[in-house]
Amino acid sequence: MKKEAVLTEGKKNVLLLHIAVMLFSVSGVVAQYVEVPSIMVTLGRVVSSSLVLLVISLVRRDRLRLNCRKDYVLIILTGMVMGVHWTAFFQSIQVSSVAIGTITFSTFPLFLTFMEPLAFWEKIRGGSIISAVLLLAGVFITIPEFSAENRITVGIIWGMLSSFTYAVLTLANRYFSARYAGRTICLYEQGTAAIFLLPSLFFVEAQWRTQDIAGVLFVGCVCTAFAYSLYVSAQKGVKAQTAGIISGMETVYGIVYALLFLGEVPSVREIVGGTVILAVALTSSLVKAAEPMTGNTASDIG
């Protein structure tokens, strides 16, 4: 009976992981219904999500104090990077499509190939270089033309900035996850991102409709705070390799949502380039998941 109970709990956690990843991926589709600038979408997202996380942390009496001044400085810088990351992600989607934004975001292992060994004094592996070349090839396949007037190309540029900043977040969270709980890391990062982006209220004009407010609140509270808490809870009972495969489905879910709710049909070029990128990114994630790591990552939110 105990074995059956474990299997049942495992299946439940896998289902919850899929639900969490589905909620992560729907944020890009919801953002397409919001007409305020991408930086306003990000501001609303981090404000609402950080408030929800703060309430959860206080109710659960999480330890919120960091160990040293260095960690406070680093996590503040990481929060600023998070603000840039999500702004670039939403901007990519707004100027091009959900498919372009999510596919180019998936190229972050390209940057990690060279950044992670430098940050943690590790050797660059030959297999990682091959993966980086394949990822770059996937990006070039997706680009229709090298012109700043082409919206797809502009979306890819913003998407690559989103990918690069996500790689920075991943490296920072590798350091923090060995020291603090995932919810605490996210609370600090999102709270810092909110403060960092707050001045944009005085420089960016935005006409907020009821639809815009509802969309941003949904992205912040449901697609971020709730989905993250669900993901972390379910991940504890699932193998890292399984969690890696499910996380890799985020881009696929996003493209399917865009097809169903926005009528966005990916072009042949996007499908081919995206398949290359997703295949390499998923393989890279699985290899990393199989390696011994300390702590849980807190950066699995796109």
Biggest sheet statistics: none
- Gyration radius, in Å: 19 Å
Number of helices: 11
Order of helices and strands: HHHHHHHHHHH
| Class computed from helices, strands and strand pairing | mainly alpha
Mass-distribution shape: globular
Distance between the termini: 38 Å
Please count the beta strands (DSSP E, at least 2 residues each).
0
Provide the helix percentage.
over 70%
Determine the mean pLDDT: 82
Q: Spans with pLDDT under 50 lasting ≥5 residues?
A: 293-300
* Strand fraction: under 5%
What does this structure look like?
By secondary structure, this protein is an all-alpha fold. Helix content is 77%, strand content 0%. The protein has helices at residues 2-32, 38-59, 69-95, 98-105, 108-120, 126-142, 151-177, 182-197, 210-235, 240-262, 268-290. The longest helix is centred in the first third of the chain and has 31 residues, at 2-32. The termini are far apart. The relative contact order is 0.21.
